[in-house]
């Protein structure tokens, strides 16, 4: 079984803020001691950090749940609870993070040491020292900590390579990679020897260097899932130049030009923008019989399908076995890389809007629905957060929550919907009677 993993679905949950405390000063020589309960500490964030030492998402196969610690509760003497440490999750370079529910891209992590907060911890609840007023100098009110952000994420690894090798199985991509780099891919005389992307660094005779990725072989119908499908084509999305490797000896009885058309069709079916990347045609296995004649025929067919004013792709005849033509190919690739800009990986519509961790002013504060058992159900982010942060162990806190509901217009809205005295109202799992 391959130990390469390039996609993973995980759940992250930031830490809850610590609860605020209700406490009072009780020193012997301090008459009428006032409130002294401190605030809770901040919950820990979940932070992704890029680690260039990681190569796959394999760690996320066995550990799919990441939960940061909650903040400490507030203490007496007005002392705040300690904030929780952030949870650091290390990911490989080239990891794209999406929201699993919406499919939107949250962030693209490509630089070593890059950090991104994927889930924000909740703030600590306020202690009763915060609620003292001239009218109520000794409040028995405190807040629970704010819940931490919780979300399901889809991780995709797209290797960081400047150049991608594509082509049918057994055309010599792995052999070429092993010759031009120090990579040691598996090489065999059968299809799909390569079942995971391989990466290697090339250094040309002129001293330039670039990264090359050898992708598992494509076949006709790959975009419909035939063979290995297009599951590894995500790794070519970051490349700027494509080396299209073709077996010019036609050793498996296929026509080299038909191979060329078939692979380009699969690239286009996967992502139209892949065809924007400049291609160099690598005519491999030129040391084999009939290769020269096949190359001549290939060039004629290629030219016949291009307009007079269109620029033909560069073609470099090589032999990975005898190392014929490799230096010229690598120099041309480096030259093409120098004048090829980075390609925009994601459209603006693919990206998640800039996160806002307060309340949406345009969103309704609450919604009212009716359950099958005739219970009125209150929901809504603002209302549910208010409910979660209310300390129901204290009568004053419950009264404060009731006033907040009234101020939001919940009473009037329930009355307008037909709620009567004694009807049950539910928020989450908490039920209370409606009093008209």
TrEMBL record:
Q: Where is this region: Disordered?
A: 127-146
Compartments (UniProt record): Cytoplasm
Where do the Obg domain residues begin and end?
2-160
Q: Which GO terms describe its biological process?
A: ribosome biogenesis
Q: What class of enzyme is it?
A: hydrolase
What Gene Ontology cellular component terms go with this record?
A: cytoplasm
Please tell me whether the keyword Iron-sulfur is annotated for this protein. Answer: no
Q: Keyword set for this entry? A: Cytoplasm, GTP-binding, Hydrolase, Magnesium, Metal-binding, Nucleotide-binding
- InterPro entries tied to this protein: G_OBG, GTP-bd, GTP-bd_Obg/CgtA, GTP-bd_prot_GTP1/OBG_C_sf, GTP1-OBG_CS, GTP1_OBG_dom, GTP1_OBG_dom_sf, OBG_GTPase
State where GTP binds: 167-174, 192-196, 214-217, 284-287, 319-321
According to its UniProt record, the EC number is 3.6.5.-
A Pfam match: MMR_HSR1
GO molecular function, a single term: GTP binding
What cofactors does the UniProt entry give for this protein? Mg(2+)
Where along this sequence does the record place binding of Mg(2+)? 174, 194
Primary location group: cytoplasm
The chain positions of domain OBG-type G read 161-338
Give the protein's function: An essential GTPase which binds GTP, GDP and possibly (p)ppGpp with moderate affinity, with high nucleotide exchange rates and a fairly low GTP hydrolysis rate. Plays a role in control of the cell cycle, stress response, ribosome biogenesis and in those bacteria that undergo differentiation, in morphogenesis control.
User: What NCBIfam families has UniProt attached to this entry?
Assistant: Obg_CgtA, Obg_CgtA_exten, PRK12296.1, PRK12297.1, PRK12299.1, small_GTP
Question: What do we know about how this protein assembles, alone or with others?
Answer: Monomer.
Q: What is this protein called?
A: GTPase Obg
Q: What is the native source organism of this protein?
A: Streptococcus cristatus
Which taxonomic lineage does the organism of this UniProt entry have? Bacteria, Bacillati, Bacillota, Bacilli, Lactobacillales
Recorded name of the encoding gene: obg
